[in-house]
Design a protein that fits this description.
By secondary structure, this protein is α+β, with helices and mostly antiparallel strands. It contains 5 helices and 5 strands. It has helices at 22-28, 77-89, 99-112, 118-124, 136-152, and strands at 2-7, 10-15, 47-50, 53-56, 69-71.
Length: 153
């Protein structure tokens, strides 16, 4: 099956098996920030953006991305680094394995929700599993990042 999509701003045309998952496709393209975790859509490690909305690439066929724009952490490094500094400042990155998917969702949330409450943040990020933290450091990092972005605007 032939697909054509934009991956991190670059147009790609490729032959893919009908059963190939988007996760495997983007990794085959060198996007190693996208991680394989649960493969059951429960951990958030494989989060990418499709047309600016977060999707779990372990549960989306690569064929479904045909004609769409897909962005991984490699495609939004500047924004990711900015938020990553807040995670590190709060000691919330710990092992870092969950960070790429988590960061993708935080950046998507920032675009989607204006002035989210702590409860809205927790709800938006409920699908991101982190086995190292108690999530409070992550919440502090998000709040500090959003507050700083608001001051910049």
């Amino acid at each position: 099956m032939r697909i054509r999509l934009h991956l991190n701003g670059k147009e790609i045309t490729a032959e893919v098996p009908a059963d190939m998952m988007l996760l495997d496709f983007v990794r085959a393209q060198g996007c190693y920030s996208v991680k394989r975790g649960c493969e059951t859509s429960n951990c958030g490690l494989c989060t990418v953006w499709m047309d600016e909305k977060p999707v779990l690439s372990c549960s989306v066929l690569a064929a479904r991305a045909d004609g769409h724009r897909v962005v991984t952490l490699e495609g939004c490094q500047k924004e990711a680094e900015a938020f990553g500094a807040y995670l590190a400042d709060q000691g919330a990155e710990q092992c870092g394995y969950c960070s790429p998917g988590f960061i993708m969702n935080v950046l998507a949330m920032e675009k989607e929700l204006e002035n989210p409450t702590d409860e809205e943040i927790r709800e938006y990020l409920a699908g991101n599993l982190c086995r190292c933290s108690g999530y409070e450091g992550q919440l502090r990092a998000i709040r500090a990042y959003l507050d700083a972005r608001k001051r910049e605007a």
